[in-house]
Specification:
This is Glycosyltransferase. This protein has about 325 residues and is of the alpha/beta class. The chain is built from ten helices and eight strands. It folds into two domains: about 230 residues, Spore Coat Polysaccharide Biosynthesis Protein SpsA, Chain A; about 70 residues.
């Protein structure tokens, strides 16, 4: 089945493949070989953009070699580590294909599934996710990911619950992602705002070929908090409901004290109840102020107009 024509006869490729690279030196050779072999087998015109996110393992040297050996490969190196989503958006910003595919550098996502993703996308979908019926991650990673996804499902109803970083995006939709300039990027959150025409296909989740994941529990928690505060007002709504509940509770408490005083059950002012009320409601006020402060902090950070990423080297324009 053919999805395009050869690279030599067309300026705009059918497929742009964006690979955020972080400590991926050991797997890049095999990944590029499999990507190229798959695209050539199905006559898909393509380009590969390797975005090196300063992982410190000298991946850039290999990327330069791959770019020199293959005309379809382009290397982009960021000036420092900006994170996976920022690196992905950087590659998408420079992708020219009719479709844009994002894939990790760890060989857990099979390049051989690309034709199936393209076939599904051509049915009229803007996004096609390659989802994993069974994940090969460690149990704690699967558990924390599942918890985060359930939280996101409640906080961002439009978000595809089964999103993955193995995604095929229609070119115009992908390039529209660059209009977002949040300092805490979340590609799938952006996509949920741009279109609801998405689909999924099952793909095998392969074992990581080299090394181990750099995502720790702490990083996952920080990432989850950033997404919740940036893409949802759920924390603010919870704080509002908590404030309403505490106000009602305080009113009921005050009413009971007044009644008790009127019937003579209270003869002296109680220091304990007074301090308990001050501490309890003072704590709730601080909690609500803290949530509001998180939003104000992000507004302040956004107003500073800091760049999402900065390129240090580009094999196309050194």
């Amino acid at each position: 089945m053919a999805f395009g024509i050869t690279v030599e006869t067309i300026d705009v490729p059918v497929l742009s493949i964006v690979v955020p690279v972080y400590r991926g030196r050991e797997s890049l050779d095999e990944l590029c070989a499999r990507l190229i072999a798959t695209c050539l087998e199905y006559c898909i015109s393509f380009e590969i953009l390797l975005v090196e996110d300063c992982g410190g393992d000298d991946s850039w040297t290999l990327i330069e070699q791959l770019a020199a050996a293959h005309s379809e490969v382009r290397g982009i190196r960021l000036s420092r580590n900006f994170g996976q989503h920022a690196a992905t958006l950087c590659g998408i910003a420079r992708a020219s294909g009719e479709w844009v595919l994002t894939i990790d550098d760890d060989l857990e996502q099979p390049p051989e599934s690309i034709p199936a993703l393209l076939a599904k996308g051509k049915e009229g979908h803007d996004i096609v996710y390659g989802v994993f019926p069974q994940r090969s991650h460690r149990w704690w990673r699967n558990a924390t990911s599942e918890i985060a996804r359930r939280i996101f499902r409640a906080a961002i109803p439009s978000l595809n619950y089964e999103y993955t970083s193995f995604r095929l995006i229609r070119g115009p939709i992908a390039r529209a992602l660059i209009s977002f300039d949040s300092p805490f990027p979340f590609v799938d959150g952006y996509l949920s705002w741009l279109t609801s025409r998405y689909a999924k296909i099952d793909v095998p989740h392969l074992d990581r070929a080299h090394g181990s994941s750099t995502y720790t529990v702490r990083k996952l928690i920080v990432h989850t908090i950033n997404i919740l505060i940036t893409f949802s007002d759920l924390p603010l709504r919870l704080a509002s409901w908590l404030g309403i509940f505490s106000s009602l509770l305080g009113f009921g408490w005050l009413a009971s004290i007044v009644v008790a005083k009127l019937v003579g059950n209270i003869t002296t002012s109680g220091y304990t109840s007074l301090m308990a009320g001050i501490v309890f409601f003072g704590g709730l006020q601080l909690l609500v102020l803290g949530v509001i402060g998180q939003y104000i902090g992000r507004i302040n950070f956004k107003s500073s107009r800091k760049p999402l990423f900065l390129i240090a080297h580009d094999t196309l324009n050194p």
